[in-house]
Amino acid sequence: MSWIVCQLLYSKIQSVMNYRFLVVNIVFYFACGGLQLLRFMIHVQMDIGYQYVRFYTTLLTCVLCFVLSFTLIYIVVNEMKPNHNPINFEFETYVHDSSTWYSRVTFFWLVPLLRLGYNTPLELENLGQLPAREKSSVQYEKFRALYNAKKSENKPVSLWRCYLEGYWGSFVLGGILKLCGDCVGVVAPVGISVVVQYVQDPPVKYSRIDAVTVSEFLSNGYVMAVIVFISSIAQGSFSQASTHILNV
Q1: Which positions, given as ranges, span the membrane (predicted)?
Q2: CB 29 within 8 Å of CB 1
Q3: Which residues pair with 128 in a beta bridge?
C-alpha cells in the first residue's frame, strides 16, 4: 500500500520537488521494520530456525523495510533541492535527472511517453530536445578536462585511465547490475525442472500444521512458477538498468 501511495505522489513530487511527502512513507517503513524485527526475535525464541521459510521471509521483510526507510531518508536529505533550472516538459521528455530516486530505478519517468505512444504513434517531435547534460559536447568537455589534467603531469597519457577515473562509478554499478541479471537468469531453467517434476509426480500432502520448511516450499510447482515469473521480471529490470547506466 505504501508503495502505491509513493507512486501516486510521483507527479506531485516531480512538479514541486518537495520530498517531504515521503516522510509518511519513512515512518510507515520504520514501523513495519520494527514490527518485523520483533516478530523475527519471537521466531528465534520459538526455535523457528533457518530451515523454515518463515525465518527468511520475516528477516527479508525486516531488512527491506529498513533499506526502504534509509533510501527515502537519502532522498529527502540529499535530493530536496530547489530546481533553479526547471525542465520544460513541453519540449523535453528525458527527465531522468529531475526525477526522484524511485522513478529513476523503476523508469517511472518514462510512463508519460509510453502512454502517449500507446494512444498515438510516436513522432520525432514527441521525443523532444535532449537535456544539455546529456549532450555529447558536455561529455567531451568532461573527458577533455581529465585528459588535460593527466597531460599536465608530463607523463604518458592513457586514455583507458582517463575513462576509468571519469566514469568508474558507472562502470562498477552497471557491471554489478549486469551480474545480478545474469545470476537471476539461472533461476528460470532450474525452476522449470522443478515444475516439470511437480507435474509428473503427485504432490505430497502434509498433515501437520507447523511452519513450512524451505525444501517443501521450493518443491511446490505453483510456488516455483511464481518464482520463475518474478525472476524473469527481475532479469529484465537489471538488464535495462545496466544498459541505461552504461550507455546513457
Answers
A1: 21-42, 54-77
A2: no
A3: 92
Helices (H), the chain: 2-8, 10-16, 23-45, 53-78, 101-106, 111-119, 136-151, 159-184, 187-200, 214-218, 221-247
Cell numbers at residue 203, please? Answer: 504432490
Query: What CA–CA distance (Å, rounded) separates 29 from 2?
Result: 8
- Partners of 213 in the beta sheet? 52
- Contact (Cβ atoms closer than 8 angstroms) between residue 132 and residue 138: yes
Q: Who contacts 54 (Cβ-Cβ below 8 Å, separation ≥6)?
A: 43, 48, 211, 212
The pLDDT, as a whole number, for residue 167 is 82
Other C-beta atoms lying within 10 Å of the C-beta of residue 99: 21
The answer to whether residues 29 and 66 touch, using CB atoms and an 8 Å cutoff, is yes
Per residue in 206-224, is it b (16+ CB within 10 Å) or e — as a string?
eeeeebeeeeebebbbebb
CB 14 within 8 A of CB 5: no
pLDDT band at 84 (very low <50, low <70, confident <90, very high): very low
Cell 504513434 appears where? Answer: 121
Residue showing cell 524451505: 214
d(CA 188, CA 224): 9
CA 132 to chain centre: 26
Cell of 68: 526502504
pLDDT class of 205 with cuts at 50, 70, 90: low
Report if pTM > 0.85.
no
